[in-house]
Amino acid sequence: MKKRYILIAIISFVLSACGNQAPEQEKSVEKDSTNSNHQSTHSAIAADEFFAPFSGNLEHIHGLGYAGNQQAIFFASHDGLKVYEDGSWYSATEFNNDYMGFNAVDKGFYTSGHPGKGVDLENPLGLSRSYDNGKTLEFLGFQGESDFHAMGVGFENHTVYVLNEQKNSKMDVGLYVTEDDGENWDKLAATNLGEKIFSIAVHPANSKIVAVASEEGIFLSEDRGESFTLLTSNLQGTSVFFSTDALWYGAYGKEPILMKYLLSNSSQEKVNLPQMEQDAVMYLAQNPQNEKEVVFYSFNGDVFITQDGTSTWEKIVSAGTIK
Hints:
About 5% of the residues lie in helices and about 40% in strands.
């Protein structure tokens, strides 16, 4: 039980870090902050002048994934995008916003958060998206109003679920969904959903399937968030991610676990994890072009990647330090 309380404290600290404090604003940067016509580039990050080689520490991560369906893993940090591609690390050279609620999708990514140092944008960012690796943001609502920490977006369908923690111009407090990029929002009954929600995941194709990780466990809904079923017992939920056929979820009891819940028959199978001490899976993603490649970020700041379907893992970041 002591270990579980330790992890709860770690989770509370990580989620509150970067929470409501806006970075210092400096000189404005003239940049088109809206762009709805960009398509995913699918080009190598190494060849993109917007990125430069990176060798610093990877800190305060609030989401990861294969943004734009590229062979590169995007990490949303408090000081902008960090990308791991083909064994090398890169960092965005401009517009290093404090991204929260980050979700990779097939055309790019959706996010919330705060403007970065020297970036002249409304604070907070509300609901935003980028289809050009973060060079520009398209704003979909709530700029200057809301910062969504718990947000899930379907990789293909782009259906957005958010936990709204403070009333804004369109929402009361609660769980909401939009299927038209923020034009219309529906408040969900969310029957049987636990409290203290950490993260939300949406099925890549079926917008009615959504999962939540909370302090009370892992919850699954197959009716568009109207009702939820608890999938775990005496476990704290730490992460959720959908592949086409399964819900991957991280949890913690006496030790960290990673499970796959198969949507076709509701069976569950345990996934092999590397050795972890008083830690758990915080964010996880599977390469949509290679199902054997899976990556996760832990609460203690480690990053592990597997190329063989989770049989073996390689640690590429240790406590925030790139190896």
